[in-house]
Queue: 4 jobs
Job 1
Amino acid sequence: MARIELKNVRKSYGAVEVIKGIDLDIRKGEFMVFVGPSGCGKSTLLRLISGLEEITDGDLLFDNERVNNVVPSKRGIAMVFQSYALYPHMKVYDNMAFGMQLSKSNPKEIEARVRKAAEMLQIDHLLDRLPKQLSGGQRQRVAIGRAIVRDPRVFLFDEPLSNLDAALRVDTRLEIARLNHDMEDVTMIYVTHDQVEAMTLADRICVLRDGKVEQVGTPAELYESPNSVFVAGFIGSPKMNFLKGSFAAAFDCTTLGIRPEHISVVDEARGIWRGKVIHGENLGSDYFLFVEIGAEAPLVVRRDGKEGLPVGAEIALAPEIPNLHRFGPDDRPV
Amino acid sequence: MAQSFTGRERSLQQQRVRAAYTFLAPMLIMLAVVAAWPLLRSIGFSFTDATADTIFNGESKWVGFENYLERRVRSNGEVRWRGVLVDPDWWNAVWNTVRFSAVSVALEATLGLLVALVLNAEFKGRGLVRAAILIPWAIPTVVSARMWGWMLNDQFGVINHMMMSVGLIDAPIAWTAQADTAMLAVLIVDVWKTTPFMALLMLAGLQMIPRDMYEAAKIDGIHPIRVFFKVTLPLLKPAILVAVIFRALDALRIFDLIYLLTPQSDATVTMSVLSYRELQQFGDYGEGSAMSTLLFLIITGFVLLYIKLGRVDLTGSKS
Amino acid sequence: MERYVFKTTLFYMAVVLIVIVAVYPFYYAILTSFETGTAIFNPNVLPEAFSLANYQAVLSKGAFIRSVGNSLLIAGVTVAFALLMAVTASYALARVRFRGRGLLLMTILAVSMFPQIAVLSGLYELVNLFGLYNSPFALILSYTIFTLPFTVWVLTTFMRDLPVEIEEAAIVDGATPWVIITRVFLPLLWPAMVTTGLLAFIGAWNEFLFALTFTISETQRTVPVAIALLSGASQQEIPWGTIMAASVLVTVPLIVLVLIFQRKIVAGLTAGGVKG
């Protein structure tokens, strides 16, 4: 329900600047993911938007109103924390109702909203329990439920899945995606260091690096046309292959990027690169070959799960020319 | 949901800082009344000739540094110095305090570490032993002074009785009364009472050291004594340092044990006890306050020195 | 194998020695407290007599019971008072970033390390100025000088350990600092409050110097002063039996409390690295 604009937002702790001038426009109802390596400032940026940290310089606008100095509870936000941050001494019901109780809402309405949120998340049978009696997944759902009850304009997620185990992470990810579909007006901002979460959840992704925006775009845009070596290397798993030196020079660039699925094993005659298979990883549906072609690192090549090749095989490889990413000396696309 | 903001809202941090000042105010006012004001007044008295009688009626006079040091010229031209700083009793008390503090803290730290090492091992009944060593700590100082005073009694004391029955001594010792044993008696009681406290602090420090560390050393076949000096002790250093500072500060101001166990003994009188005698028994508020002010300065200096030298993070606020 | 047995024996001997040294003096005080007449003057290791005469002597004196009452009242009020102020103060010190916080913490620590004697004459004047001399309020006021910094200090360390995200969740929910303290942190902190309160209580219960200075009449004395000033028929004759009975009476509840809260006390002591 809210459009969020950041205009040259900066944050420093003493002499150290951690957010170095960010301009960003988050649309109404959008699912925006902040992603980047640890220390890039993504969590700090989320906390600036939430109001838990003070903005040093620049403007933060919610629906065209400057909210720099508005306290978190008045911004119409709800936040889901990494550690769930449930109140340990309150039952699930009170955890979810606490915010509305503090704003002196009508008890009937509180009850209705809590019940509705609990049903949505299938935790209505847990309302009388204490957080310590719940599993990790249930706790995170309660935390999400607490956020829903607040009926926010903006939903903020701070790495909500990183405390869950792998299987539960996928389930909860699905849950959040569903929530996003159900609450289409609500703007959601989600922080993660995991590019898979970013790719699967986001309408748009904002890649951050060292306190600055590196690139903003839909998952497909970032995947297909990264505007820097950094983004190209960060998005996609396994990582994009990077070739330098003479390999790159052959294509008129400083760094040549090619994703594993865009390289094929070909006849000797059509081969552009030649090398020896030094390792293979069979993931069932995919088979990744690691081929030593004389570059800095072995080239990773994706093949179908049944098309593995023995270690030691000498093969020829060719990239799909339209899917090559060519970067200049400034690490930007040529 | 549409909310309107005037732009003059106080930010979260500003609100919290304001709340913090409000929350701190009662404590600060209270400390100003019961600590800062009396301290300043006491220091003030040390520059006057106040006595128990003149302290309230305002008849006491300002005498400058006379209580600390005063140069007097007699009619015959002879120069005489008087004041706390040239008072042999005062220097005796300083020496006693330093002696007591150094020996008691060193003993308590060493014994505390030994007890902590024993308690850090896993054995049946460890909980009981830990409970047992808490007992000396829980006993009020007055009670332990009386208890030990009885045990160290010259005629009927159980300590003399035991030592005589095993042939350690031939005749009963008047532990608390004799000048050469009075300090020993005080040290015994203080070490008995305070070692548990040291042991518990060090035990907590020991339990923070990861077990893997010992297991790794064991697998590498390193001798346990070497492990102790190379691994345990360096890792335990911060815990020991903090415990020793707190204990030393406590030892420097010791009053009740000495006042009760060895009253009137010159061999044990400390700065606090001497100052108390001056104030309460002789009613000399000027000189008594001068002594207590000096003690305060010594302790303050000691703390500053320790913080500077040891770079000890006493507040633990760096995290 | 022999080496192992030797080592284990040595270790358990050390354990036994520690326990005996720790417990024996109090055990001996209990023995003495049950002895009267000449039995007292025979040093013994095992109980040889059992008489409640000393306890009767202590308890029949109204003054001693009065002293216990005074001590309970003074220590109780002092601690309640200190905790009340310390909860809000420690929240400010532990959870809010503001200028001069480190300095303030150091000052509070310094006050708790004050030599009591350094404020004695000033406090004496203050107590008289307020007309509190020889009343429990004189001691309640003066004990605040060590209970308040102590409780603030220990609660600050406990408060600092509470998770940041819980507080932030409460802020997002619209809780003011006061609401955070009363409705979110206090329910989580009560074990720490009990520990801190108990340690401060013991400190106030045991205090001697102020109690000796600021009370004059037998009815206003606290327990430590009462025990220190227990005297017999003549100046020379020290009533050891009665003193031991009184000592046992005031110490046993303390020991029971300490043993019950053993684990928490150790946590509290290490939290502040404080004196006993």
Note: The mean pLDDT of chain A is 93.
Job 2
Amino acid sequence: MAEFIMIIVSAVFINNFVVVQFLGICPFLGVSKDFKSALGMGLAVTFVMTITCLITYPIYVYVLTPLKIEFLEIIVFIFVIASIVQMIEMALKKFSPSLYNAMGIYLPLITTNCAVLGVAELVIDEAQMISLLGISSMNMGVAVLYGLFAGLGFTLAIVIMSGLREKITRLPINKHLKGFPIAMIAACFIAMAFFVFSV
Amino acid sequence: MNLLLLKSINFNTLLIVIAVVAVISIVFAVLIVLVSKLCLVKTDERADAVASHLAGANCGGCGYAGCSDFAKALVEGKASLSCCGATSNEDKQEISAILGIPFDAEEKKLAVVRCAGGVNALDKFQYVGNEGCFAQSLLQGGSKVCSTACLGGGSCKAICTNHAISLKEGVAVVDRSICGSCGACVIACPKNLVELIPASAKVYVACATKCKGKDVMGACKVGCIGCGLCAKNCPNGAISMVDNIAVIDYSKCSGCKICVSKCPRKCIKEF
């Protein structure tokens, strides 16, 4: 139970992928203009992260490590992520056209979202994970849970950002700061708030 | 040098790498093919044909998200061709041929802002805040005394994809030579001041108030007071007084511009 809570706190707050580790900044700034599409993007990333961990962790542990070809990890992981995103895109088009339209170009962009590759790379780094979570050894369950909550952390950050940006667009702001610059400043303050957890 | 490089390659490892990548790629290829078969979406190819004939402005004047959305609605019979103002009559004719739906050619309509207030209209209070018209109208219906005054927030200007609208002395003005007649500004105006009138029109009433003359006198220097001079002097009987304001019937208007010279408030304007 303590391990479980540690995974949640670590993945969502202490090592939040966007505002602490600065991975996946592209969708964080690109899709955070309104709440609805931000939530959709966050959930899509969460889904992809979970499935990615579910597939890449066993591939690394049971295929790449015994064959001593760990150097293939990035190629194989990118490959897996791209295939999963492709399949999710087709499934979304069939079962939820509105979400498919809302995400538009950003769904294929999850393929190159470094947060997804980041979580796949992080969960196979056993020493790093043990020091992060304070657990005795890594296993499949921890990897998948970490993927899930890392995705939820991403969702949390992007949803907070979208809420802030929706408010900001209604404020009278100096025209030189309007739009992207003020979004960067808002992102800075969100990151500072999250850093409280890691001190 | 080349030989050295060749010797450094471990061929066993190379074979394993090739085999592993090949196996993984085949597995995922099969999976993707399976999913694509499972999730095949039937698309109506007529929708693409219709979309190719639409103006492609993506202006949003029809109330749909874009031209492809509107094409889909047309195919499904949810929308009518008259919703789109940006597509030319020839293209509409071809769309009606594709879908087999009736279509009557109508004259091109262009947008006009029915207000000349701005600096001429009196303020109730000084507004400081978000410039958007909708936000302004939420606070006591805007800062003007007149309830149907252009607030000058530029919501119509912001939504116009043709950049046909500009703000002059606090009032939105449509440049009719570049108006795409999509009607997006009609939806954007919280005061319903933007109207689509025929492109051949020579004059328009630049006021939308329904108040009595005395109230208008106290609120605006150029508002219609409903005196009826234009209606009395129109040789074609094209102007009628409805709810204290002049309304022009463009099917009868000959463009003589007598009304423009007779109007004591100068709120009937020529283009």
Note: Chain B has eleven helices and eight strands.
Job 3
Amino acid sequence: MNAALKRAAALALAAVMFILPLGGCHGSRGRDQFVMPEEFDASRNYEITFWAKNDTNVTQVNIYNKAISDFEALYPNIKVNMRLYTDYGRIYNDVITNIATDTTPNVCITYPDHIATYMTGRNSVVMLDELFRDARYGLGGSELRFDGPAESEIVPKFLDECAIDGHYYALPYMRSTEACYINKTYVEALGYTIPETLTWDFVWEVSEAATAKNPDGTFVLNGGNVMIPFIYKSTDNMMIQMLRQHGAGYSDAEGNIGIFNDVTDEFLRGIAAHTGSGAFSTFKISGYPANFLNAGQCVFAVDSTAGATWMGADAPLIDISEDKLIDFETVVKPIPQYDPENPCMISQGPSVCVFNKSDPQEVLASWLFAQYLLTNDVQIAYSETEGYVPVTTKAQSDPDYRAYLTAAGEDNDLHYPIKIQAAELLIDNMDNTFVTPVFNGSASLRDAAGSLIEEVTKSVRRKQTVDDEYLEKLYGDTTTLYHLDEAGRAGGVAPGEDMGPLPAASTALIVSIAAVWLGILLYLAFSTLSKKRQYHR
Amino acid sequence: MKKVSTFTSLLLVAVMVFAMMAFAGCDSGEGGTSPEAFAPAEGYMTHAEYEAAAVDSEVKLDTYVQATQSWWDGKITVYAQSPDGAYFIYNMTCSEEDAAKLTPGTRILVTGYKTEWSGEVEVAEGATFEIVSGDTWTATPTDVTSLLGTDDLIKHQNEKVAFKGLTIEDISYKNDEPGDDIYVTVGYNGASYEFCVEVYLTGTDSDVYTTVGTLNVGDTVDIEGFLYWYEGVNTHITSIKTVG
């Protein structure tokens, strides 16, 4: 083969090599799918990172530390390095950043909403289906060096919350819900009796009554200058639960947004009215509900059951000076309801996901640690730090845990009654909990839901009018700010899932490039032959 | 001729330098301008006007950056002070590129809403700003030690302040280990006060962060920081020195 033909052949090969990857690159960005090793290689050493979240609670940190040291004693060849956060948002942001640089942690406390976004990096999060069911290293597996739960021993509802598109991408770690912490002394002073099931109507009515002032401007109820009768910590939950209780739109699993509806309108107008009268505010605008409740400046404080240790006159954790505390009777109830016969409330709390790495053995080591967090020792100890509930029936039925619940009120520390009542609130209502659909963008939608309430509350306080025009603008701004018009089911692609045909534009691009290369090759071949002829002339 | 030309050039340079210094007369560097002499840009408030403004009303501030917390997610929290008073601007809307320009002393015009959060009077999240170039000013810490425990302390809220001769009563890390905020309990005249090394302000590699970690209960210290408020005085410490 002469030089010209070699060059033409090389160009043709280069063209083929250029075009081939173009056709194959669709959907193949990121790591290869995790493949389960034959067995765990215990002869090697592993160092894994665990990004954990605590509720500004040192006891929880100590439990993580003990879990790590106990695990490392069982698996001396696995070292676990923990990085602590007190804010899910920061973990989320850091993970997103680290996906881009391929420096994700191995194991991470997270929310399923967040995992849906992490999955936009293909195979960045390990699908756990195979790991769950592996006879040796899976849940309750024969080769585990600890007594972990079988899959059937994880509360099914909590486990289902970790499935995205029919596949598991996380393990539940702890579960909580929201509760309404009530100053019963104040409610009764206002002439009301707390009903068996708290309703929105009741909360608003009592809250309005609590805004009454003396001629000197102080509040009748507490004689002070500050009284915010109803304070909500997580306004995203407030909106989500209200819509659910009404059966109104929020979103579907495909990422179709339904939050801007008549029920939302009505609810926001109500929020505006109660803000205007001084009956309502939020954590973001005024401060921690617990601080107002404990200072006698609030009647109804809604916060997570995982914040119960801060709630009440005898709370073991307080954030205000002793001289500001007042004595009152605290009652814990589920959040206000529209239909007391069919209560519903959100299920929340941390889950654990495992990030994919190039070394399957490292992933398996990570999976072993993630699983270890579901052992009874960890589950029971951690759940007792707050109003959390263990996610396994194995832990929930453990005699130690039952004894813990029974001992409620024996002291104001480990057995602080408000905390244990908050946990029991969830145990009693596990069938009444729900979660919102997870998709790429669902975390943004959640933020948007809360922002609607925050914006309305702020606007009223700033003397702006909340009317049709305001709401229309608010919805438009919210859609833009939170990219709700871009949300949708793009949360990565499950391994093996058929992605369908290439988009027409992509196909056209590839065909065009191929045509150009073909043209170049034909030209080169033609000119080579022409030159050859000239040489012979 | 050549000598004359050089002399003339030098003279011109000298004149220009003096002229520039005169034009930059408002650039008083560190703590030079008196509160009375400070005049905010037209349409912007004096600190007295800010104090008089109702909570939840719009405020417009002409002030100088003293420090910032770390930029995050399109927002930055600013400790700001003018010669006539100080401000805490929470989660001001800011690009990462602009955040790099908010160095201590930078003059900024801020538009936002006044709010109060757990006792801290501040500019609410979402304020906007523009940088005024060519003018800088940094505050000299005011010694407010004698005001601890008095109603007058809050009058200095958000200012860069100094405390002398406080006793360390307790030091605890937020998560029981380095990496996050450090809670510092100090004593003075028989009363205790909760101060804080705010990690988003100082970072973990700063002198103040590492120094606090070496202190012992009973140490006597001088402290500088911003007079932040959280359910009471909660100074965000920027400097700490052992004096006994």
Note: Residues 2-23 of chain B form the longest helix (22 residues).
Job 4
Amino acid sequence: MSCIRTVFSTLRRYPSAMVGSVLVSILLIVAIFAPFIAPHDPLKLNPRERFAPPSVEHVMGTDEYGRDVFSRIILGTRTSLGIGLSVTLVCAVAGGLIGLTSGYLGGRADELIMRAMDILMAFPGILFALLILSMLGSSIVNVIVAISITGIPKTARVARSSCLNVRGEEFIEAAKARGERTWYILLVELLPNAVQPIIVEASIKVGFVILTASSLSFLGLGTQPPTPDWGLIIGSAREYIFEAPMLIVWPILAIAFTTISFNLLGDGLRDILDPRELGRV
Amino acid sequence: MAGPILSLDDVSISFKTINGKVRAVRHVSLEVRRGECYALIGESGSGKSTLAFASMGYLPANGSIDSGRILFNGEDITGYNHAQLEKLRGKHVGMVFQNPHTAANPCYTIGEQLTEGIIYHEGISRAEAEERALAMLEAINIPDPKRILERYPHQISGGQKQRITIAQALLSHPDLIIMDEPTTALDVTTEIQFLRLLEDIRSRMDVAILYITHDMGIVARLADRVGVIYAGSLVEEGSRETMFRHPAHPYTQGLMHSIPSIEMDRKHKGYSMPGLLPNLISLPPGCAFAPRCSVAGECCSSLPEVRLIPSEDGVEHRVFCHHAGAPLSFATGTVEECVCHDEEGVACSEPLLEVRNLKKYYEHSTFTDRLLRRAPRCVYALDDVSFSIMPGETLGVVGESGCGKSTLGKTILRLTEATGGSIFYKGEDITHKHSQSLCKSIQIVFQSPDSSLNPRHSLYTILSRPLLLHGIASGRAELEKRCFRLLDMVSLPRTYLYRKPHQLSGGEKQRVAIARAFAVHPSFVVCDEVTSALDVSVQASIINLLQDLQREFQTSYLFISHDLSAVREISQRIAVMYLGRLVEVGSTDQVFQPPYHPYTKALLSSISLPCIPQPHQSILLEGQIPSPANPPSGCRFRTRCYRTQCEACASVQPDMVFRDGHGLACHLDRAVLEADTPVFPESFLS
């Protein structure tokens, strides 16, 4: 109980974290209960009602096959959040470990790992993802793999720089003097003190990943129709932009809403987790 | 009659934090008179800096002045707006901060930063301002001032930087300079130069100084009047002579007794004040010092009124205490020498640790260096260092910062690999050996307890880990029991076990660090500046603790410190280092008496003692400490040596020559060195 109260009292002092976490909670609830919230079956075709304007029956109207756009947007939350969160998790764990190890070891090993990361970073992210997807074929799992690979170097850099700040602390030296093994120093001594920037980076990354995933779907290399996906909806709505301009606006609004929510949360977390603030919490 | 330049009238300052209102300063009234040096002393967290900075309108956003008036030249500045404050600070008040390294902006040259203020505030031309800056640097004896003006902050040394900040503060001809611990970040040899400069400035210019410090030695050298502040209130104020000879407040008396000082009898333990600073959020009513005071009675639950005590020199002596002048006892136990015996009761004669010709060079080569096959640049951190430590003995290592003393500690622990030479532990060569049993025998306690304890771990994790790692104990119940015993050992309450380090005070954290080192019963502990980051009132208690543990576990210490008084108190033998080499080794008495190595003498004479007048003459070392990457040829000290030099000084490195176990590395004739006058009078070193 006291833990929850601390969380709330902390959030109250950081408005962007407050707004961010409320919005993200809404998104998560929508994603989890999507089938119950959606008023229609998102896959059900209804040729007689193509391009219906917004009405009580269809809040956001219908698309070129007469499917309910609102239901498709709601179900699309699942795909987007699913991809966004799993890519972020993979990046944070893999990138975090790579960065921490690299920063802690230093010297040649550090040089080698970071140059490899630089090479990965040198490719434009979306291009690299396209390359991977055209090799592996399109599926949700492959989208996750592709975006993760492009995202790991950035997380690794963040983790490395935060590790370098902690590495010089005397408690690390004390652990070495005590005869601790490298993995213990890395995971038990270093990680808890270096994890904040990684968390912040991850929360901002979610929005970015959702954008990338949508772009891939839009280009036809991500999720495949008829899966309800925001990028896909934009892709197919593009052709009817003059007949039904609102069709393209809804998914864009959804993407913008999600990205802003996670960015707000990330900004707020950065303020809260700032080491200078820790003493006050 | 000199009128006050700054006068505080019943000033209270508080900060709003999420835990509540911190009452940092409470009802303080004092005045700084024209041309005088007023020293404000107190422990960290006592509100001395807050008071000084608030009196110039520097308060963080969550701070506010709750009551009282701050008069500068008779004008109340509490209601000043931003522009008025700016003018006040720019023209009438100078500031000198604690850390000279962060006080200057690294993006601008010294000249630009010096002239910026006067160009803005006085509207003079750049050329005119530069001329004035140059004249000021010349006036405070900075060598080669023209070149200094063109340099960037990173290109000059710390001591020089601090002198530049003085120049900056003086440029606008202010009436008052506020100095916040300006010498804390400096070495003693640089500190003494700085203090000399201040004395010189005061004799020539009519400027008042508000000097914030916790160093009584400096107060004894500089101050005209002294104010002691405790938990945000002024507890005593009087002339320097009165405060040192007849302190009346129990806190002042305790503070005076807790300073580790050269004149102290080494056979007696240092006095340490019991208790901690009270929490400034929930202060007890009445006297804030009462919980730590040995004469506190029932009357102390009411706020003490000011009492005027007649003083010999006629300077007002104010005390805020119900029991002012009550006789107190500061008697402490005696220190028993730790003598090690083997199983048959024979005193040990084999050294525990022996270091022979130890070398540590840090090589640095850039990519282009490697490409052009240039020899890597070397920093000679340790060069041919040899000494030995007996079981149960303490060897003090002293020297200026950058002389290699910390590197020595780390190399012995093999945290860095030695470049050459060897380390023997119980007769075994351990220079390149890494084993768990060695980690168990050789431990280290670091300077800063904030950094040496992992802030995310509880004391339980911190203390139980070495026990678990070295297989001394396992299982929750046994570990907990052992941890309790460790806390008892360093006199910390058992209830602390599940706290995190940030919930402890600095001294308590250092106790935890010591407990962690002793958890594995080491036979050798490196103490790297363990008292430097602590308040004077707790330094003595840490040294006492180390001495008690030494007797109990028959541990040997390598006690690294720049504080010669602390080193003298704890060490049986002392080694003096300069630029990576040992220049003198001997028993504590041998090092403190002639023959001296010229450098040792300079170091000893730079100490400021808390007595009036200073009993010794200071030797000012010329120039800066040379870079260890490019040490002078021959004797490394020759570039700063104040004695007449022979030819060999510039060409041959002097060898350490021993007589009666007292080694000196100097080309000068031993007879000449022996004829040297002692730095401190005989009566001082008891």
Note: Residues 69-105 of chain A form the longest helix (37 residues).
